[in-house]
Design goal:
The protein has helices at 11-22, 34-39, 51-56, 68-75, 78-84, 97-109, 139-144, 146-152, 165-193, 198-225, 238-255, 260-274; strands at residues 3-7, 26-30, 46-47, 60-63, 88-91, 113-119, 133-137, 157-158. 36% of the residues are buried. The protein has an eight-stranded mixed sheet, sandwiched between helices. It has twelve helices and eight strands. Helix 11 runs antiparallel to helix 12 (260-274). Strand 2 (26-30), helix 2 (34-39) and strand 3 (46-47) form a beta-alpha-beta unit. By secondary structure, the protein is of the alpha/beta class. The radius of gyration is 24 Å and the shape is elongated. Bound molecules: ligand FVH. The site of ligand FVH has 21 residues, from helix 1 and helix 4.
Length: 292
């Protein structure tokens, strides 16, 4: 059993605390709205009136507040920083690589061991064997409390000692998710405008998915290896993609659909073609994802 301090009893914080309690840990929880922390008392938590009180008897302090502004407003208070000294601070509030590195530097200066985490799941998946939570920072601290992290998510992993790595992966993986979800929004707009039902579309999508998956894997390998010129293995050149893309543009215009998502595709295709990459692989578009 580990004595754990916990800041936050929102949707995710409540799921995390209840999972820690189920795994037999002694959890002292503080929340800005005290009633939410008190409600966790029914599950065995020890509600505390302040973050420093929640940290006093803890070996590890886990933070899961709305954002880093809310978190910093608590952590940077001298009473809290001194209560954390010599302990492990685990930041599970979502943030950017920069905020993670800044907090890591602050923690080091305060004599606090630090792990920055990224929860790659919604609250309902917390405590499940396949749930992934990424951590980066103190490898020693991760190893010491690995069983606590495994209880929160069975696929939890230590990325590396760069404090910002977990947050960077969080944003990359979320980019992948948003790309799929925004693509789905565009697809659904097209089929609705063309009077095709969603079940029909879903059935054909399942048949096309292997083509999409292979193109994604090929793209990742080509960008990793720098093989972005058109070659015998290129599935479709940028010119071929762009020709097909014009049909989407025409549907959006003809049917009065919002062009915002398609415009992002068009901007990148146009930049690559204007710079002489029409006959190159789709992977050549990666060159235009960096602006400096
Ligand atoms: N919900 C999810 O699926 C995602 C999955 C990935 C990771 N996120 C991150 O987890 C953080 C918390 O998200 P949440 O969904 O639990 O958010 P809420 O339910 O709104 O709870 C927010 C908690 O933060 C407290 N809080 C907000 N502002 C302040 C402040 N200025 N000072 C102190 N505490 C603050 C709030 O307190 P209260 O409103 O109950 O008094 C909640 O405890 C977040 O980083 C997600 O990106 C979740």
């Amino acid at each position: 059993m580990t004595a754990i301090g916990f800041f936050g009893a929102g949707r995710m914080g409540t799921a995390l605390v209840r999972t820690l309690l189920k795994n037999g840990h002694d959890v002292h929880v503080w929340n800005r709205t005290a009633e939410k922390a008190q409600a966790l008392g029914a599950f065995g938590a020890q509600p505390q009136p302040t973050p420093e009180a929640a940290s006093a008897r803890a070996e590890i302090v886990i933070v899961n507040l709305l954002d880093y502004d809310a978190s910093d407003a608590q952590l940077r208070r001298p009473e809290v920083a001194s209560a954390l000294q010599g302990k492990l601070l685990v930041q599970l509030t979502s943030g950017s690589p920069k905020t993670a590195r800044d907090t890591g530097a602050w923690a080091a200066a305060e004599g606090i061991a630090y792990l920055d985490g990224a929860i790659m799941a919604t609250p309902n998946f917390i405590g499940e064997p396949d749930t992934l939570i990424l951590y980066s920072g103190s490898r020693t601290a991760y190893r010491k409390y690995e069983t606590v992290f495994a209880a929160l998510g069975g696929k939890s992993a230590f990325v590396n000692e760069d404090f910002g790595a977990a947050s960077a992966l969080d944003s990359a993986l979320l980019s992948q998710m948003w790309g799929t979800l925004f693509g789905t929004l565009q697809a659904l707009a097209v089929i609705e405008a063309e009077d095709i039902d969603a079940e029909t579309y879903a059935a054909y999508l399942r048949l096309v998915q292997p083509v999409i998956d292979l193109a994604e894997q090929d793209l990742m390998r080509r960008v990793r290896d720098g093989r972005d010129g058109g070659d015998a293995e290129t599935f479709a050149t940028i010119a071929a993609h762009n020709a097909a893309f014009q049909h989407l543009k025409h549907i959006n215009a003809e049917r009065g659909l919002n062009p915002t998502i398609a415009d992002a595709f068009g901007t990148l295709f146009a930049a690559a073609i204007q710079n002489g990459h029409a006959e190159d692989d789709f992977a050549a578009l990666a060159r235009f994802m960096v602006t400096r």
